Amino acid sequence: xxxxxxxxxxxxxxxxxxxxxxxxxxxxxxxxxxxxxxxxxxxxxxxxxxxxxxxxxxxxxxxxxxxxxxxxxxxxxxxxxxxxxxxxxxxxxxxxxxxxxxxxxxxxxxxxxxxxxxxxxxxxxxxxxxxxxxxxxxxxxxxxxxxxxxxxxxxxxxxxxxxxxxxxxxx
Length: 171
Fold this sequence. Notes:
Layout: E1 5-6, E2 10-13, H1 20-27, H2 30-33, H3 42-59, E3 63-68, E4 74-81, E5 90-95, H4 104-118, E6 126-129, H5 134-142, E7 146-153, E8 156-162
Antiparallel strand pairs: 1-2, 2-3, 3-4, 4-5, 6-8, 7-8
């Protein structure tokens, strides 16, 4: 069961078949997908969409569809991922066309990180960010993450941004 998380403006929820066409549009946009594996046609988009949904079954965590509460439009995705070959669990995010500059990525990532620490008991998280992806670097820094070291994933050099460690719950 994929938990539904909420913030003041956003709802993080599981994927539905109705989300597929929005995701296909996202994966067709070279500017939006430059740092998340590049563009995909509809067929490859389906495989990526299925992987996002299936990650929950295989790992017990994954990426949420992020929708704006005000009108239920899908604004992007955010969540926890640890696919094969990743050095450790990551928190990642991406926004769809027209949704940048509103603080959605930071808001969603803070809620997802809180879930990882409080509900899953994780103590640390990282984000893999391409050095040219200035907007995502700014989000990582707003989250309190700091550049730790370079890392090569799937032939591409990225930076590991280390998020602040979880603080023990006070009883």
